[in-house]
Amino acid sequence: xxxxxxxxxxxxxxxxxxxxxxxxxxxxxxxxxxxxxxxxxxxxxxxxxxxxxxxxxxxxxxxxxxxxxxxxxxxxxxxxxxxxxxxxxxxxxxxxxxxxxxxxxxxxxxxxxxxxxxxxxxxxxxxxxxxxxxxxxxxxxxxxxxxxxxx
Amino acid sequence: xxxxxxxxxxxxxxxxxxxxxxxxxxxxxxxxxxxxxxxxxxxxxxxxxxxxxxxxxxxxxxxxxxxxxxxxxxxxxxxxxxxxxxxxxxxxxxxxxxxxxxxxxxxxxxxxxxxxxxxxxxxxxxxxxxxxxxxxxxxxxxxxxxxxxxxxxxxxxxxxxxxxxxxxxxxxxxxxxxxxxxxxxxxxxxxxxxxxxxxxxxxxxxxxxxxxxxxxxxxxxxxxxxxxxxxxxxxxxxxxxxxxxxxxxxxxxxxxxxxxxxxxxxxxxxxxxxxxxxxxxxxxxxxxxxxxxxxxxxxxxxxxxxxxxxxxxxxxxxxxxxxxxxxxxxxxxxxxxxxxxxxxxxxxxxxxxxxxxxxxxxxxxxxxxxxxxxxxxxxxxxxxxxxxxxxxxxxxxxxxxxxxxxxxxxxxxxxxxxxxxxxxxxxxxxxxxxxxxxxxxxxxxxxxxxxxxxxxxxxxxxxxxxxxxxxxxxxxxxxxxxxxxxxxxxxxxxxxxxxxxxxxxxxxxxxxxxxxxxxxxxxxxxxxxxxxxxxxxxxxxxxxxxxxxxxxxxxxxxxxxxxxxxxxxxxxxxxxxxxxxxxxxxxxxxxxxxxxxxxxxxxxxxxxxxxxxxxxxxxxxxxxxxxxxxxxxxxxxxxxxxxxxxxxxxxxxxxxxxxxxxxxxxxxxxxxxxxxxxxxxxxxxxxxxxxxxxxxxxxxxxxxxxxxxxxxxxxxxxxxxxxxxxxxxxxxxxxxxxxxxxxxxx
Lengths: 151, 746
Fold this sequence. Notes:
The complex is a heterodimer. Chain A is α+β, with helices and mostly antiparallel strands. Chain A is built from 5 helices and 5 strands.
């Protein structure tokens, strides 16, 4: 039996321990805010936080999150008003928006570690998040807005 | 079905509104939609708009939202003309139904096609509300005006809200078009200014419902092993091990398609499970013996050589002015160049996915599709039912780029649901997405010019060869169709006395389809690169040379050419080289062309083109560092898209187009070996990441009263060419074969 907390709520899982966290979140808990894209841990669309660190939920097995605390986009803030979410709206970052849960979760982790990131910090942190619509310029702008840097 | 409630599950508009609501009638339908309907009566609720008695304005978004913003911007046009308070507008996503008019969301057409119908719908409702208020007060309607969700009697300042008037208005005759009065531009509240996406909050908090998030009660999940080679078939298969995977319930063979492929399922073996992961795992355990069929001899590198040979042979003449052969014979310097663009995949972030529920001879689907009416048509054909018995609910699309216009994956879900008698969710992986696309055609292009005084061409020949999109739908179609050849090929805007445009034949070995900006990708790349080559050969400034080639402002005469003009009347949307010059000059001025000091191995490139009726000119600045890595510090783009609806979304489309173009130039390449697509995911079909994308894209909009055009696609072609021209300026290396890939630049 695997025990974990998702957005503060305790859960138990007795299925295949090799099942990636992503599919547990999406198909079993119906927390569909976390999206699937590459499925091999290279596009960042599925980022969630495990004990505060950003991980690719598509390649993180349930076995590895036993006893861990998971934070998804649904749990990031009560009303979608986390500073990063607010900045995302102010800058009108999303186009299709499909990859943006992952972008936001990655950006939150970046800003927690580096409240005033340089361009290089942003490139390094966000390099693993693909956006096919091409919203990178506004991703950068929104992160700088949160940091209080003039974008 | 809690989740799916976020997606419209309703029937036609009649069920959306409560009794007493004002629901606009068929009279406001665009002509072509009205012509195709035969059941709608005057108050058969049909399109676009209803007003509830509590004042809520409900506007139907009948186009698909894939990031371009039309789910917000099209209803916003109606809201403006209605003088509605945007805060009280609710948007309902339409199901597929011909009464909405054209729903196929492609060709950058949403704003262009529906600007006027939306304004007419809004103006019609506003006039009816004015008349209802006038009747209530017993005053002439001419004394009444609208003022943000209310009607005001000017002399007495009495006011009635839209909700209070809805029931009375709904009983009035629908005014004729001639009676409508449109708001002057100066009174527009939203058009020209824009509003944030209706879904913005939901996109930031995870609540937005994409196709991948659709769910219906009792549904099972399916993952399909397709034939690895296009047109292949299952010889035999063994599913014993697959069935042992926990959660897997059964397998279902899907028969191969009957050529031409069209939108039919590719065939293969589906694994059915109670969650996506189990279906994926079960699929890995399938043992299938394939008959790979005739396309197993397809190797893209050899195919490229075939295209390049064909492009050097005379082709079908599409446009012919003056006498090109005489022009070449008359001497002068002859310049030739070959260009090539490989197969490309749209690769939206959200893979193909669809939920289908077939029961009692009827089909309901929930899917991220660009054309719900095509789902009706082709799913009906596939299942042998009437298309009226297919209900297609459209979710948000996690990117489309043309791929989600083709409903093959929806048909798979439909076939499986009918077979197993349960709702089925078909989930493709990103690998499937890349291996089983409807690819943008690979294209060889040959350019030849005789160069006279000042390096100016006196004769110009351009010839392209690519397997055409019609080949996916018609057996033995080998020549390009006029529509796609009209994307920057037959409509070459240069002022050259002797000019010939040709296209040669090519057979496909994969499904060819359209991808954002389609043929402009290769056609604009070739023409605008060649123009740049001629400029450098002549030692002239590429900007001056480009303006010289475009020539004097004039309307391009294409009467002797088959030119569909993106489905728009040429008298209303002609190609005006004056507008092309203007964006070129505007971008050059703002990019400080020729004025900024650039560092080592840095350079600027320029290109300009008309596509989907919009004029776009782009300057790309490139820097190549000591390791040979390419950086794009800045892109400048000027756009003339006619009347501006939402300037921020036009900017967003141009920013995105610059990134899309960057991906094509840097690494966009699909190849095949023995008929099998070599690439499988974003690691080997790389799209631009943040550090590879342009750091900053500046967009300049021409303020225009011309009819609005589309902006989703036209930014891509010019950016591709400008990027390659900038690389030449920075390094002296001319990029004629895309992508750059591993080519060394230093």
